[in-house]
Fold each of these.
Amino acid sequence: MPDTHNHNEQILQIQSRTEFLSDMRNFVSDAARRVGFDEGDVGKIELAIDEACTNIIKHAYRFNPDGLIEIRLSTQESGQNSRKFVVEIFDSGLSFDSSQYSAPNMSEYFRKLRHGGLGILLMKKLMDEVEFGPSVGGRNAIRMVKYLPA
Amino acid sequence: MSEFTVGARQRDAVSVLELKGYLDAHTAPELERAFQAQLDEQRYDIVVNFKDLSYISSAGLGVLMQFIEDVRKNNGDIKLCNMSARVYNVFDLLGFPMLYEIFDEEDEAVKKFLNKTGNLT
């Protein structure tokens, strides 16, 4: 079950099950709304987190339902009068080598009628920054940032 | 847990799938089953109505990509309609309007199929 702590940063630890994706989305969207994002940005952040966690469930844990996903949220200053919303997601599954990733060419993707493999592209389109690793304490890490409107 | 349902109905020779709720990696298999049921019945003219769909992730887009080849090989198509701005934005962000026709209203999507088969003048 979800375990939420409230300090300066908010943390959700949750099992790697697709049935908990809605809990993960709600955790992040509630926080994003509270720090002042409009509904459009809340929706983008929510989808980016869904895509990241879905990839962890599918690829890092290969649908093992007992893996652990930890989501940490914080709001940080970023220069004068501006703030950023930082989402960090940790897992202890198989690691992802981001140097091997290249974004799909969508014209070719449609021409060849491919499916799957769009999660990272979406994350990058939805968030201002997306960074994979380095692993922290033996865990894989994803760090995503969305800047708050001034 | 995400709630998601698919309803299926016929409008002449056209199948309409009505999506409701949240379509993510947990609920996408429900949509796969609905498409597979249409193909099992050899129904290849399919309209997907998104009117009551609140949310879609790439897992939902993946289901559309999974079936489009079989459907088009059989001279059919998957046409989409009644998307909220939020759902449309996800399709648009990835360029899906290049591959799928998206209509404001279900009637327009159904008519496009019926015109093709000459059932409607």
Amino acid sequence: MTTVAGAGPRETGTGRQPATGTIPHERPVPGQPDMWIFVLFEAFVFTSYFTVYVIRRTQNADLFLQSQGQLDLRVGIFNTLVLLVSSWCIARCVQAARDGEFAAALNNIYLTMLFGLVFLVSKVLEWTAKIEHGFSFTSDEFFSFYYFLTAIHFLHLLIGFVFLGVAVHQIRTPARRSQELIETCATYWHTIDFLWVLIFALLYVMR
Amino acid sequence: METVPPVPSGSRLRKIAWHWRYDEKRELWIGWWTLVVFYNLYGLLFFVIARTQPPPEPSLPPSEIAQWFADHHYGLLYGYALVFIVGGATAIMNATLAYTMRRMSVSRAFAYSYLLIYALATLPGMLIMGVVCTVGAMRPDRDPELLSWLYDFAFLSFEGTMGVFLIGSLVWMLAVLLDENRVFPKWFGYLNLCNALTEVVVAPAWIFKRGVFAWDGEIAWWINMAVFVTYTAVFLTLIRNLILREDFGTGPLPDLESDRAIDAITLGTAR
């Protein structure tokens, strides 16, 4: 990986200074390659969970189908759209930081947080409604998987707020503004979005 | 001042003797080899001799639990007798792991908290299970209901308490990510996060007696074990590299010669 050795903020035609760090087109991946190792490892772990889910589903197809019918597909779609929009916002934040538009980058990261928060609240409301209707973690195997997969994803999302906080700190502090770190945080956020899409497909859509 | 002779060529024994006498990293290598030997022994004693791993089913009725203790009688007694003999090695292991944090640019509080957590974690992570299993195995003619109680106590204390390692992994993760001495690559910090998250996944073992979330389940045990084995293999390798790179200074650790060569090839520059 090539870095801009000792590079401070570079002047641009508009007078704005993009974040420091490596030059995007000279890097194999956006952000720290270390984060991509995390992404691959998490993908491996979640693939294992999904495989176990699919196997158990095949063995108890009727039960899973019946319990799956208790989930509201509209809520799942809403959650998915909310997270996709949050991912779009963090992508815009990265682009803005690359262009030295830090006010726009900050606005986009706050929007990312807002949509992340909407997802969390929506998920809690969905869980509450399900429990009120008598579908708890121990009701049946489908709901065990439902609560497990959504809860472990929820936990990842909470950790995502720490990464967003790091990105905010980077953007708000002119002396820092490491483009690589901002992109690393964005990579984490995209990962939890990607994992949700798979969870949504497995729990809500797959019949 | 004693003159240090060159490393002898030929016999491996003579090389070991040289390292024992002159190698300034002797203590670190003792710590590392303790880690390697302990984890191998741990696997051998728990998986092969005591046969408590992979764990048996939590849903067994008392009569089958009594049979399980009868079937594992000698394995439990001899296996855990050996575990108790080598158990003290965890002190050297934990000290070696804490040393990695002492070598970082971060506060010493990281190393101290890690040491404390893992010193306490030895109880649920090893000793309680050993004591309870040997108590059960010692008198297999006990009332099956009582043996059933011991069985639950042993396996829940071991499988169900993985959460105590959660904070330890997070402490190591934070130390690696904040460190400026390049003791470990940053991806190892993130790998600690993966490991920490799998510790959370064990929690449902307290609720389920059968299925994928029970203490012998595919998710609560098998996948977690795969992650833990990978994590252990990774940190053993990284600590070995750390010792090879150690210059006993306080600043950034130098690269290994092999890494420098790779960098030179990658960047097209010879340094």
